[in-house]
Amino acid sequence: MKENSWLNLPSLSMPVKALFTGYIFVVGLGLMMAGAQIMLTHGMADGKFGLSVDDIVYSYYGNRDGSKLESKLNGSMKEHATPEERLTMIKWARNGAEKTEWQTTIKPIVDAKCAMCHAHIPTIPNITKFDELEKVAAVDHGADYTSLTRVSHIHLFGISFIFFFVGLIFSMAVGFNRITKAIIIFIPFAFLILDIASWWLTKMNPNFAYFVIIGGFGYSLASAIMLFTSLYQMWIMPLRGQSSTENTWTEKV
Questions:
Q1: For the chain, which residues make up each domain, given as ranges?
Q2: What pLDDT digit, counting tens, does each position of 113-145 carry?
Q3: Is the pTM higher than 0.85?
Q4: C-alpha 154: how far from its chain's center?
Q5: Where, by residue number, does the polypeptide cross the bilayer (predicted)?
């Protein structure tokens, strides 16, 4: 059975091209923002900018030589407190997070530097309360299973919708045989499953951290290929085809 020869990206009508292009631009911007968010959160888990295997291990397996509080103070939260304040809180956590020092030494720092976010944003721990900060000051075992479950189902549902529409647009591309096109469309879904599964595996064994990076890189690369190919075939290829007698792009309403 042959594919529809008229239903292809170069010959789409101008309104449909505008619709697809707007979606591609917004999705592309969203992917860049997601990358920036990863760099500013997971990418700072080891206290250094840039995503590394250590960042992945600290985020999911944890830094079991220290606390999550220490990891944050040396990582993504480093700029929100002075070196002296960070050292005071880290020493307090290492010494067992005693409640006797909480009211006089730790709470003033937390109220001044942390409360503006942690006391008002419901999705992050309210460390202005001793019971909550005590949990964060305990040995860092990485992401807990409740948060992994929540984030996993959000990513699986949300990102799969993005890949579905990106793949649907790319399915109208020309110049690819069916098998190649099908593989390119399927790759992001496969790497998304690998990425999410690797979170859980890394939680149990830090050696799986490499697969998190491979999964994220794989679906990002495949998505980029589909997005740029779709834009090229909608807007540049028809202009080149106008000067060729072999390729005549006829717009369909």
A1: 9-41+143-241, 67-136
A2: 999 999 888 878 899 999 999 888 888 788 889
A3: no
A4: 12
A5: 20-40, 154-176, 183-202, 208-232
